[in-house]
Model the fold of this input.
Amino acid sequence: MDIGTHAEPNKRDTKRDHKQDRYAQGWQKLKEIDGAAGEKVVAALAPIAPDFGRLLIEFGFGDIYSRPQLDLRAREIATIAALAALGNAQPQLKIHIEAALNVGCTRDEIVEVFMQMALYAGFPAALNALFAAREVFAECEVAESAD
Done:
């Protein structure tokens, strides 16, 4: 038996293809959810931490947001609730409030999520989230009136 006649697929190429698939899937999901705002975040990371931007795309959006068990509305409701509860992630919260609107959440639903957070994260966290929502809603109104 000649051991050298069977060619195994190059494991390095297979691994690279898988990473490219995750990145492509993640990039599409990011654009679907966040649009230009998400792209700006990744671009802003490029000069300082391009690997982190890649991880954000591959893991966050390629692996997690792409799972079928929750729709994008449910994922964004969970995300804005978690970010509001953290209380120290205003830039990310604003991006995800806009994302929640992009995937079909209403302003009333977003406000209600933050009111719910007052019970579990406290009034300061809920107030901060409501003020972030007010800013995002105002920016959306300006953008809509410009169109």
